[in-house]
Every structure is written in C-alpha cells, then in structure tokens.
Amino acid sequence: MICFLIFIFSFVGCSKESQIEHPLARVGSSVLLEDDIDKSMTEDKVFDFVENWVTEKVLIEKAEKAGFFKDKKLKKERDLFYNKLVISSFLDNSLTKDINISKKEVLDYYNSSKGFFSRKQEEAFVHHFFSKEIEQLRSIKRQLIKGKSRKNTSKIRDDYNVEPVFVKKGFSVKDIDKALFENTKTGFIGPIKTELGFHLFDVIKRYKKGSELGLESSYDEIYQRLLKRKKSNKKKSFVDSLKRNTNIFINSKYRKIKNET
Questions:
Q1: What is the pLDDT of residues 43-76, one digit of tens each?
Q2: Does 221 reside within a domain?
Q3: Whole domain around residue 203: which residue ranges?
C-alpha cells in the first residue's frame, strides 16, 4: 500500500503489552514506549529524542539519589517557574479568546511588508510518493511519464492520495536532502532508498534562498505577528480590569504615585 508521507517516522501499530515487553528504551523503572514519540518527527529527530530521554532519566535518577529533590531553594525556584507558566497560559487564553484576524488584515500587512518575507533556505515544491517496494514506485513513475494529459496525471496522484508540498533544504533525512538539492533540475527524482523505504519525487518548481515568499507561504507567520500585536495592545486594559474587580491593598510606602500636573 502506498501512502503520502513526507519524512514522517512511522511506527507499526502494536498492542500496549508488546510495547512494554519491547520498549524503545528503559532506564531503571522508567520506560519509553512507541506511543510516547511524536509521529511527526523525522527519523533523525527520533534517534536524538531517544538518546536525550535516556540521558535525562539517568541524570534525574542520580540527582534524586543525591537529595536534590529535597533542596528548598530548588523547590522555591520550581514554584516560581510554575506560577509564571500558569500566568502565561491564563493570559494567552484570555487575550486570544475574543481576537479576530481577517484575511484582509493579513493581506494588507503582507502588501506593506513584502520585503521582509523571504526564504531562509532553498525549497522545492514537490509531489512525494512513498512505498516499501521499489517496483511500485517505478511503476508510478512510468505511469506519470506516459500520462499525456493533466487529467491522467491528476488521477494517478489522487489514487495515491498525494498532495503538493514544500520541502526545505536541511529538513529531511540526508539521502533525500542530498538527492533533492544536489542539482537544480525539475521533474522526477528517485526512487531514493532510506531506512524507512523508497521515495519518489516529482519536483514541480524550485526556489532559491532569499527569494520572495508568496502570501500563502507567509500567511501563518503574518497571522501570528498580528495576533501577538493585538494581544499586547489588549493586555494592559485586561489586567487593569481584573485589578479593579479584586480586593487589593498596597502599603502607601510601596505604592507608586502618579505625578499630578
């Protein structure tokens, strides 16, 4: 079975009992299971995650034995950090709740700031096919090459549930990254063998580092910028309203007094 997949580290489904018997890692009584891994991670990221998890568990275990979990200063710092995290989450939720950002606002921001939206690295706009069997990808490649009309090629992509996507240089496994960006041609690249299986790419268009990003590629970033700006503008009045409705006392010695003019 062929499915659309862009550098996702997939795991074969298995029972919880089987995962516990054959975990990804174990440190003492702590166990890392497949279900604990973010399925959107690349293969390299998963390897790093497992290694970091093991390192963290070893250090935590040794720190606990050394008595650091009973340290009063560390507990105080922990509570301060947790309070700040709770406050940040509360404010973010409260300030975001009633904020609306229209498509027109995004478009106006983009038109007034076009020079600020450019690619940080090379990109390729591609159709990506994945399979465990190389012959399946070779067959797809032959079908696409023979397809004499846009309708036929679209049908093939629909049959394999393939959507066009942007791939950035340096964001995929080494073999794929090298094959995609070692030349500047468009068209078919692959099949490429990786530890997960075989990959076939139909490169539609390439973009150089520093080239201008279109509105579609910049939309999410602009949306977040506008959201951050609106939350910042709203924050003071929101906090002031909460204070007005709360019983507060501040000793006059420590109260800021506004200069009267």
A1: 778 888 889 989 999 999 999 899 999 999 999 9
A2: no
A3: 119-207
- 149 shares a domain with 78: no
Do 134 and 202 lie in one domain? The reply is yes
Together in a domain, 55 and 79: no
Whether 112 maps to a domain, the answer reads: no
pLDDT averages per 10-residue partition of the chain, 261 residues:
41 49 81 82 82 91 90 93 94 90 90 80 88 87 73 73 84 85 86 87 87 82 90 92 90 70 45
Q: pTM for the full model? A: 0.51
Q: How far apart are CA 89 and CA 215, in angstroms?
A: 30
State CA 178 to chain mean position distance: 22
Q: Alpha carbon 247 to chain centroid distance?
A: 42
Please give the tally of structural domains in the chain: 3
